[in-house]
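Quick question, first post here. What does this chain look like in 3D?
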Amino acid sequence: MRAETDDPLVQVALPTVAEVLDLPAVRVGRPEVLAGREHLDRPVRWVHVSEIPDIAGLLLGGELILSTGIALPDGDDLRRYAAELIEAGAAGLVVELGRRFRSLPPPLVTAMERGGLPLVALHREVRYVKITEAIHTCIVEQQFNALRASEQAHETFTALSVRGASPAEIVDAVAGMTGCPVVFEDLMHRVVGHAAADMPVDDLLRNWEARSRMARADARTAVCGAERWAVTTVEARGETWGRLVLLPSGEPTATQLLILERGATALTLNRLLERNRETLERQAHRSTLSEIIDGRYSSAPDIEARTAALGVPIAQSALIAVIVQPEGGPGGAAEPVAAAARAAGAGALVGALDDRRVGALLALEDPAERPRVLERFARGVRERLGRPATVAAGTTAREVAEVRRSFSEAHQIADAAPPPRNAHHRPYYELPDIQLRGLLFILGDDPRLQAFVERTLGPLLDHDSRHGTGLLDTLRAYVAHGGNKSEAAAAAHLSRQSLYQRLAAIERVLGVGLESADVRTSLHAAIMSLDSTEPSRR
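> Answer (accepted):
Ran it through. Tokens below.
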């Protein structure tokens, strides 16, 4: 039972009648409950010592009345006295025996029992000042503790909001302050953030959607469902976009509910600040992808439970790591990439990995579907982005531990792939597609390869730099088309005569004969190596 303070979010846990009767100052009076035993959980907001029979008109509700009974009425007036206390919402009546009554009158006992109001007799004389002092001290301490908890929660979540903390950090803070598992879900009951506390993640998230749909709340903050979850909505300006759920081991305390609501407020601020950057789903996907790639998860069942709660079951699936590198950077690309994955019929975790690339972990039920899905996915990415992009796919992983290797391959493939505006650009690239280019990229930092490039192409690069010519671009087109001059001239947008003149100049500057297949191979390898380390030259 709770009563509100001046702060609408501070709910003070008041002592109950049962807790009051257990105080040492009350126990010395040998209290005996004569009526209303089933209602001893009534909260005690304050204590009044009163001997007047018309005290009910002075009550606000929740008061425990202490009396010696010396001025209590008789007969029907006694029943009326009890009815007025019940109507006023008193917490209970405690009467000390001895001064007037040796035992409490049956009409009073009957009336209090019928009205469900606790009636307690004290069989020994007590000092009421000790009782009121003990109860009021207890109430004030709990109010102070609630206000202190409110202040601490306010400071914590304000600091998180000011520094732009992520939803994951806010959820972690709620779990840390309450000591309970916490889940942040969207309106479709998909988990977009969680902190398991001491509970295994797979236990926390098992069948999450079904369990969450059973926990329906009738108010913004409520304790509901068979598991007695504490739930509060995350909303602003009348728009609700999720729920923050606390899973306590018993009934949640007032302080835990306070922290839950403060956490929801922090998530609201985060949402308002971030709504033009990423959706909650993309944030959750990006965070989960990062943990998988970096190996920052406790076990395969844990990460599988988390991805399943996000709506992307990866257990028993064929997993393909894909890198999407849009021209001009990944700004706003994650959502179109996710839409392309859905259209291709693949479950996918999708999120921006850095300032150049979007990562996607595709989950397929049938590994044989890989070529079809990748083809549809790559074409869907190009259509939805509306700009060129490189799509690179690592080899298929059958376990989550292998995903890191698949992403490493995908990064290497993306680095080695030709630029997206290249005439021979593929919808997507795999390891067999990059072959020599991929090897040269991997060896790009090797001084021996660098020396080879400089020895092979250095004179031509110097010539272009001094004279402003574009002989390197001409040579690139020529070797890319296997020495076919007609195709090279078309690709370089040159007439055949101009191409012949440029090829002659290249032979003169480099001191080689371009009709030699070995020479062309060496030049092609040097150009691919140069392009892999300096993409701007492509």
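The two ends are 71 Å apart (CA to CA).
The chain has four domains: 2-137, 164-276, 281-430, 443-537.
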